[in-house]
Amino acid sequence: MTNKATLNTSLPLPEGLFKGHYQSGITDPRWPKEPPAEFDPKAILDIINERIGAGRLREEDADILSLEDVRNSYTSDYSGRISKQKNISIMRANCLLKKREDLQNLLKTITEFASEEIRRIPSVKHLRILEAIPDSYRVTISLGIGATLFTTLDGFDRYGISHHKPRYLKPMPSFLGDSEELDPSASASDFIFLISSDHPYINVAIVRFFAEYLNKRFSKNYGFKGKAVEFLGVEEGFQRKDTREFLGFDDGIDNISMREDELERLVYITQVDNEPDWCINGTYLVYRKIRERMPDWEKLTVVNQEAMIGRDKETGKPLSRQVTGPKGKTPVYSDSKDPADGALNSHIRKVQPRRNSEDLFGIDDLDRRFLRRPYPFFDGLDESGNSINGLQFLAFMKSIQQQFEHVVNMWQLNPDFPVQGAGIDALYANNILETLDGGYYFCPPGLASPKDYFASGLFRE
Ligand code: HEM
Asked: Which of the two ends of the chain, N or C, has the fewest CB atoms closer than 10 A to its terminal CB?
């Protein structure tokens, strides 16, 4: 790989902490809208296969593909799509402080920490000879806050900020398919940190840094005695180059596009959303840690697996009669109750019926979509020797109730949707999936200036 376009330098960078209205690590980094100006098809194939490798273009096809074919494929599949970093660490924490000013100062310290890490230039000191020097490890640290920061589970307004609580923020409820051990109120936390980068060691370093020094720096800066934050543990996730997850399917084919109008309609809070003002340009986060039972899945034939997902395993195409809609996306099904377009209990038909008219609430099905930014995880083996692996499901949206909860309760886990007796999502019906953990959070907007700090709007009266 000699073309500059294939080097690390060409990876799209996250938006800076102070650039744009949104927190970094949610809808960025993104692939550039246009492929690099000078390229040959082989170089782009290398990028696609090496970096994101969705496999829709094949190495052996390189000679017969025209520049135009490759450019079109880039434009339909990658242009503007999120280019997730390779590793994520999900860290949760509770706030032990009692006073409102202390919380305010803690948020300043967290911002200081996060911005130092996001802006840190990779050190060349420890690279081995001939090792490429990365321009950036693309570090992003996104902060989410839980309902318990506003009021305790028994309703106490801890810091006098409950009147600023985002409207839909609440502790996550239980759902069908949850593990017996999952107690959502015990999993609820005041903070969640999503730490992403392209190197597992960078993640480790940042997690350790937070755990070991955040309390110390807070004490030093503000003369506080005792611990401000209690860390509750860390979850890890990684991304495969081809974006396939453990079930072997490419996850993320049909996701929200990064067009500003779509982001404002479905992901980020705007003026029209009737939320407290400080929430504008923020977004809700639903986190679910979902185990995938591999022995049960691997017993199934590929045909059965495809019927459960609703897509062809190799190509990712939907099993519907018409396979592509506008811009290469899944088509709106001509009849949402017709199994000729894929089993009615298949995952993609249960989570997005794509009906061609509005529902009883006057909402189009496609307006219930949310931005998915999932990462597979592997946690070792259980006591029977089975692997504990699955998906760290992370989804961003402007209303948990109208998007995630409507999708799950009204469609995915409703046995009588879209027709009586259709059954719940086949992945849950066959015990392939089991939710182990999770929570609901609100991610505040990006910083307005270098002096601003996360969630500063909470302290404006
Ligand atoms: C381990 C758990 C899960 C796995 C392995 C999984 C896998 C997949 C796959 C392979 C696709 C098709 C590719 C694509 O369109 O991106 C898909 C689509 C989708 N999934 Fe999941 N998923 C999981 C959990 C969930 C959950 C909990 C939800 C929330 C309700 C969800 C919502 C969606 C949505 C909305 C789509 C897009 C459907 C469309 O637009 O047609 N998934 N998922």
From this structure: C
φ, ψ for residue 442 (rounded to 5)? -120, 125
H-type helices in 26-86, by residue range?
41-46, 67-77
Taking the CA atoms of the chain, what radius of gyration do you get in angstroms?
A: 22
Residue 211 token pair: 């755990």
Residue 16: per-residue pLDDT: 74
Closest ligand 1 atom, residue 249 Cα: 10
CA quadruple 248, 351, 195, 281: dihedral, nearest 10: 150
- Is the backbone peptide bond immediately before 29 cis, with ω within 30 degrees of 0? yes
The rounded Cα 388 to chain-centroid distance in angstroms is 20
For residue 89, give the DSSP letter. Answer: E
For residue 178, give the 3-state DSSP assignment. strand
One-letter amino acid of 90: I
- CA 39 to centroid of ligand 1, rounded, Å: 33
Look at residues 106, 111, 320, 115 and name the one whose alpha carbon lies nearest to residue 220.
106
Dist. CA 428 → ligand 1 center (Å): 12
Residue 79 has pLDDT above 50, yes or no: yes
Indicate the pTM of the whole model: 0.93
Residue 55 has pLDDT above 60, yes or no: no
Q: How far is CA 201 from the centre of its chain?
A: 21
Of 303, 351, 360, 358, give the one whose Cα is nearest residue 330: 351
> What's the DSSP call for residue 271?
G
